[in-house]
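Hi R.,

Here's the input for the xanthosine-5'-monophosphate complex you asked about:
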Amino acid sequence: MSDIHSERILILDFGSQYTQLIARRVREAKVYCEIFPYNAGLDKVKAFRPKGLILSGGPSSVYDAGAPLVDKAHLELGIPVLGICYGMQLLTHVLGGQVAKSTKREYGKADLIIHKEDGLFNGIGSEFRTPHSALQTVVWMSHGDRIEKMAPGFSVIAHTDNSPTAAMADEQKKFYGVQFHPEVVHTPQGTQMLRNFVYNVCGCKPSWTMASFVDYSVGEIKKALGNKPVICALSGGVDSSVAAVLVNKAVGKQLTSIFVNNGVLRKNEAEKVQQTFKEMGLNLRYVDASAEFLGKLKGVEDPEKKRKIIGTTFIEVFERAAQEAGDAEFLVQGTLYPDVIESVSFKGPSAIIKSHHNVGGLPEKMKLKLIEPLRELFKDEVRAIGRELEMADDIIDRQPFPGPGLAIRILGEVTEQRLAILREADAIVIEVIKKAGLYKDIWQSFAVLLPIKTVGVMGDERTYENVVAVRAVTSQDGMTADWAKLPYDLLETMSNRIINEVKGVNRVVFDISSKPPSTIEWE
Ligand code: XMP
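And here is the predicted structure with xanthosine-5'-monophosphate in place:
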């Protein structure tokens, strides 16, 4: 086991929407952690060898029928425990205290008055302190039930106006509970509290760094591959790009990266990807299958059919290219940690994201073994690894782009002519957003070509041309999204430029729908 994994924290997930945030905060403290479902077996938990345990929040009440409860054995490992919100109520409930059912939720910011400055609250709340004032800091509350009577051994270490037991500790056992959420940004000193837990209470040292991860992964990849050939489907997106560059660093020419032009890429995409990765020294095989894809898409209007055609054609093309590259036994895939977590909170949505992101059926069909060097990482860590590998910002900060590409942004039939219109319009949207310095703050921004024509006037003539919709959304993960409130003058620039520069467009509209109930793509 490498050093980077020697300091470990385990998070048991009880269904909170914030569980992944806890993990990211701990990792930002350079301590490795993983998320297990709350009912993970004791053997699995012990085998992980955690130095501390964090019980996440969750939407349940400990009194609900079927509420997820913490296994008492998990609390008897002799390691420190931090219960957050529902996690604190669980500690109370199973260790002999009393949780009071409440009909009213406490939601929002609260002033936390700290009774004891050490342990969890070391260095917290002191910045505005006057000689006789209490230590105080702002925390984010979101709970229904509250602690009526603490379990034996616990004492109050902080309170708020509404919560007499806002934080508690059994210092002998090193068990802590907080009613608020230290992991969210609305608790400004929450990161420091989690660091206190991880460093001071659990005794972890910061060892999870991106540089050491690269070293570690290179070693592991070498061990797994020996001198066998490996292939990779390079899309030009962040995940597959970072995965390919990492494997390339480990085994160099043993890796063949296959980049398929499916005919529905953005403007200059095929050239840019080839240039970038050749410059990085990758053994890149470029397959221009655009004619094959577009031939099969001819006359097809149904979005699901388009997706199917693109998916199956991709497998056929990739399989041929792979055979030409030699007999590979291994396939590199850019799977990320959120796709791997078998957690209660992410069961539903992550299954959906996964079906989008997997290179549909390739490994099974071609009997390939998977190499997934990013499967321990969150997206922001993948970007950090990319920087560590000296990859260009242009690749690392890319907005996500769907596998079926512009085909699901052209409503109706995909033709060369309609692709040409959309490519130009889309390039203008991206250029204007980038120039305004907004590209990184926006989850996705792009143009959509609608299947209708409208009347316009140009000079003295009436026109009857296409409508382009501009979509720009902010989002954390693509599951939910809000439309980006782009400034009017920026929208104006976009609209003017598209109508003036793109032949065949006489109207631009801006999409002001959030997801749900709408989706990000128009399909
Ligand atoms: P929707 O339109 O469902 O999209 O709100 C959610 C996110 O998924 C992306 N997306 C895809 N990504 N292959 C992909 O790799 C796909 O087939 C696919 N379809 C949608 C979409 O761009 C958004 O980020």
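One thing worth noting: The first strand starts at residue 8 and ends at 13.

Cheers,
M.
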